[in-house]
Amino acid sequence: MKKFSNQTIKSVLFLGMIALISSCNADSAVQQSTEEAHGENEVELTQAQFKNAGIELGSVELRTLSNTLRVNGMVDAPPQNLISISAPLGGYVVSTDLVTGMKVKKGQKLVTIEHQDYIQLQQDFLDKKSQLEYLESEYKRQSQLRNENVNSEKVFQLSSAQYKSMKAQVNGMKEKLSYVGINPANLTESNISRRVTIYAPASGFVSQMNINIGKYCNPTDVLIELVDTEHLHSELTVFEKDLSKIKLGQKITISSPSAPNEQINAEVYLIGHTIDADRSVKVHAHFDKDYSFLAPGMYVTAVVETDDNKVNSLPENAVLFFDGKNYIAVLEGVHEEDGKKMNHFNLTEVRKGVTENGYTEVELMDGKQDLTNMKIAVKGAYSILATLKNSEEGGGHAH
Fold first, then answer.
1. In a domain, 6, yes or no
2. How far apart are the C-alpha atoms of 57 and 26, rounded to whole Å?
3. Residues near 164 by Cβ (< 8 Å), separated by ≥ 6?
């Protein structure tokens, strides 16, 4: 038997190791090539799997979707619809039938007040009214005598001055009586009263009650607050960055936690010009009709329709959400494998836009490729995603 030297044996072993390493590298290259051919977001389905999953192919459509802006706000009433009721001369509360939230009509009795100053005011008026009657009669008599040259000019002027002065005082007293709620035309010596009744100057709802029976109220105290709800509006808070999207006349859909099943329609009628400390602007919206369940101070959420535009859209269920990203299942091609027809899908990441009426705006992330020619799974897309996830968990490729 031929003997080999140690050097020869070492050379053979070295060459063998090189061959082994080369073989491993080749296997690795084949494996890498296979993985590149089937990327991590690629799925292949047999025709049977395709049909069983109910997959239907379609393409993007240009549809008109409304861009919307969601904002918060509250129901408000304009200053002219907020009414504060006071007792001009003050007094003690005698009676009232009101409670907060009650609806009142214009001219309805609100509260009865009493004070001794009302008595004195009525007495003074009736006293001056009697004096006026006498001075008017005397003025007419002196005027007639003056025309007949019987009296002097001085006597006539004195009578005229006294009459006009008293007439002014009586007219002033009439205004005072009307101011406190007493009709001077109905006042006589027999119906002087220490009480006055305050009536509603307009229809509305009682928003606040600051009185109780027997309470003394100063002239400056607000006894009752009314809100005329016929002209309520919504005051919305729009941040500075979104202000350019708001235009007069835009349609708004409003909802409130107080009435979750009610849809309130409104439109923008006033945009503020003052930016608050939180970089927001107040936008006012008018309701399209009177909603009886609304009240000032009520919290609301509004959806503003900013504009309409035609965009690439797909049925909402065609857009898949997975691992914090949005995808669509694009059919890359169909080929034969082991005698089977295989459908090759690629889950392509997209940017999701507006969703409305069951359709969603989509745009490819790079913004360069054309979506219009792609065949996309518009039904059964989640089955494709499920197949991909199952194959990843199994460590293989879906077939």
1. no
2. 39
3. none
Rounded to whole angstroms, the Cα distance separating 211 from 319 reads 61
Q: What is the largest CA-CA distance in the chain?
A: 181
Q: Which residue has the tokens 């007219």?
A: 171
Evaluate whether residue 3 is within a structural domain.
no
Q: Are residues 336 and 316 in the same domain?
A: yes
Over the stretch 249-286, which tens digit does the pLDDT of each residue have? 888 888 888 777 788 889 999 999 888 998 999 999 99
Residue 367: inside a domain:
yes
Say how many domains are in the chain: 4
- C-alpha 311/C-alpha 265 separation (Å) is 26
3-state secondary structure of 122: helix
pLDDT tens per residue, range 145-198: 888 887 788 888 999 999 999 999 999 999 999 988 899 999 999 999 999 999
Residues 90 and 223 placed together within one structural domain of the fold: yes
Residue 269 lies in a domain: yes
pLDDT attached to residue 36: 38
